[in-house]
TrEMBL record:
InterPro entries: EipA-like (IPR008325), TAT_signal (IPR006311). The keyword Repressor does not apply. It comes from Pseudochelatococcus lubricantis. Residues 34-54 are annotated as: Disordered. This is DUF1134 domain-containing protein. Keywords: Signal. Residues 1-40 form the signal peptide. The keyword Signal applies. It comes from the Bacteria. Pfam families: EipA.
Length: 220
């Protein structure tokens, strides 16, 4: 069954979440030009097994098509970013389309909400939030696609996913990073966000995202 979404309209970020991050976004508006090359392009961490092709996974064409409908353009940059992720991580067995806002000044916060899509495990709305620490500043409001690897069931999304060191880079104007969380057996669930949007956030940081079934202020 093809579970690619027909309607890619996502839940809107709540007004209070946007206001909470407006200071960082204001600073970002003053910094309109960002780096165009890769910040770091590291291979997947040791022990990661690329997702094999199966009836549970999504191919490049499906992800790019959903992304084009969601981001509202037929950006060549998105296709390049998705292809880059597939070359590094393989085929995902789930993905999220959503929106988020982030702001930072050496320490920051990120809030988001969207919908998980899978081939045969259903769909559901999820929320995420998390802190970051490091040498970064600025703010951003983004539409975000998150590719999911080794997802055994949708409920396992509700946990913390920590950033994988050295996995953040830029390709064709899209920011790409990777996070890992508890899976089943010896395989971690890996999330690979692909972000675009207004604002600017520079630097290298460490942090995590916590996924929850309901909206919450608490990033911890």
């Amino acid at each position: 069954m093809d579970s690619s979404p027909r309607d890619t309209k996502q839940p809107q970020l709540t007004r209070r979440r946007m206001l909470a991050l407006s200071a960082g976004s204001g600073l970002a508006a003053l910094l309109s030009a960002g780096p165009q090359g890769a910040l770091a392009q590291q291979p997947p961490p040791p022990g990661f097994e690329p997702a094999p092709a199966s009836g549970d996974t999504f191919n490049v064409e499906e992800i790019v098509d959903s992304g084009h409908r969601f981001f509202g353009s037929t950006s060549r940059g998105l296709a390049l970013a998705v292809q880059n992720v597939f070359e590094r991580w393989g085929k995902p067995n789930g993905y999220i389309l959503g929106q988020e806002a982030a702001g930072a000044f050496f320490g920051g916060l990120r809030y988001g909400e969207g919908r998980v899509y899978t081939r045969n495990m259903g769909e559901r709305v999820v929320f995420w939030q998390g802190p970051s620490l490091g040498f970064d500043f600025g703010g951003a409001g983004n539409r975000t696609m998150i590719l999911i690897y080794h997802l055994p069931n949708v409920e396992i999304m509700f946990q913390r996913f920590a950033g994988i060191d050295g996995s953040a880079y830029l390709v064709a104007g899209f920011a790409v990073s990777a996070l890992a969380g508890r899976g089943e057996g010896t395989r971690d669930v890996v999330l690979v966000p692909i972000r675009t949007g207004v604002g600017l956030k520079l630097g290298v940081n460490i942090g995590y995202l916590k996924f929850t079934p309901q909206s919450t202020w608490n990033p911890f």
